[in-house]
Amino acid sequence: MKSWIEISSTKLVENLRAVQSVAGTSVETLAVVKANGYGHDATVIAPVLESGGARWLGVTDVEEGARVRQILGHGGTRILVMCGMDLSDAPQIVAHGLTPIVWTPEHIGAMERAARGVGHRASVHLEIDTGMSRQGIAIGTELDKVLERLAASRWVSCEGVMTHLACAESAPGTPGSAVTAAQRKRFAAALEQVTAAGIKPELIHMGNTSAVDEGSTMKWIRDAAKKLGARAMVRTGLGLYGDTLSLEGEATAALHPRLSPVLTWKTRIIGLRDIPAGATVGYGATFTAQKPMRLALLPVGYADGFRREASSGVGNGWVMLAGRQAKVIGRVSMNLTVVDITGRKNIAMGDEVVLLGEGVTADDHARWCHTIPYEILCGLRGHVHLA
Ligand SMILES: *Cc1c(COP(=O)(O)O)cnc(C)c1O
């Protein structure tokens, strides 16, 4: 096996508990396992999260939802399809007991037909666009039309009303927090329209990991839910996997200190080589040895999610070998990477190497690549198993 990913189910459940405890016991936590569980394999972690007490999971689309449903069976765990639906998905959504996020009259019409087809009611969550301009319905007349459709529906019930924040990591006093304040205000207006239309959602939700970490939205959503006689929910992904973005502005991270990464990505050395001074390494001959060196070859590259930006002279990435850093030498190739083990003793063929884990975090990889840990994690490819 070229590389593999070990998941600590203990840490995953500890992170879930940390989110639940920081969010508050009155708040429901939806565990986001979309994008194949941010590289952690949704089908491997979904049962762990379920037995750890998650009553809601969030998936990307109907296909991922069906895979997770097949693993979990039709027990009590709810699965929210978060990233839109095709109208033709509706029968599958109903058949697999999934709950879609909807925002157009056409979505509701498609769900109505699918639910009527099987003869039992389907629940949906309605997304309000409060400032992302991505998914969701605009407040005002457009929202009124959708609410009218929902209120008249025999087969579809509006179980949840939700929105998504653009700047959840921004603490009060920052420009981002003004965006959040405007979003809350629009969401409050939307909730008034919902109530006026005679619809009583059981759940309202708007925060992600950063909202839990930053805190101020949590109080807002709890209060807003209470006013409606509904339950508040947060949707956390990155936090479950043990990471958060840095908060912007004067804020104390409430969640971050309580989390630990759950994933370790490993491979094994498949080659050892001594090179003389003057030898070059890899494509483009971008690295020239200034002295004799000893190199180890790893069977992973950018095709596996070990990003090309980790190359020496670019991001200057490293791996961990027997608890110490070994630097990437030359360019990362599609399926191969060379690291420096000059002067190191007792390194042998087949030795285990940590590509991401203790000593080399998703944040490190993200820094090499000028991106966010989300993109690193969901780009990993390797066989996932519980450790
Ligand atoms: C991905 C996603 C989340 C989870 O975000 P994290 O920052 O990983 O906690 C929450 N809500 C929506 C709508 C999302 O798409």
List the helices and strands and how they pair.
Layout: E1 3-7, H1 9-23, E2 27-32, H2 34-38, H3 42-51, E3 56-59, H4 62-72, E4 78-81, H5 90-95, E5 99-102, H6 105-118, E6 122-127, H7 141-151, E7 156-162, H8 175-196, E8 203-207, H9 209-214, H10 216-228, E9 231-236, E10 263-268, E11 271-275, E12 280-281, E13 287-288, E14 293-298, E15 318-321, E16 324-327, E17 337-340, E18 352-356, H11 362-368, H12 373-378, E19 383-386
Helix pairs in contact: 3-4, 8-10
Bound molecules: pyridoxal-5'-phosphate (PLP).
What does this structure look like?
The protein is of the alpha/beta class. The chain contains twelve helices and 19 strands. The protein has two domains: 240 residues, Alanine racemase (TIM Barrel); 98 residues, Lyase, Ornithine Decarboxylase, Chain A, domain 1 (Beta Barrel), CATH 2.40.37. 33% of the residues lie in helices and 23% in strands. It has an eight-stranded parallel β-barrel, surrounded by five helices. α3 packs across α4 and α8 packs parallel to α10. The protein is elongated, with a radius of gyration of 24 Å. Pyridoxal-5'-phosphate binds next to α9 and β9.
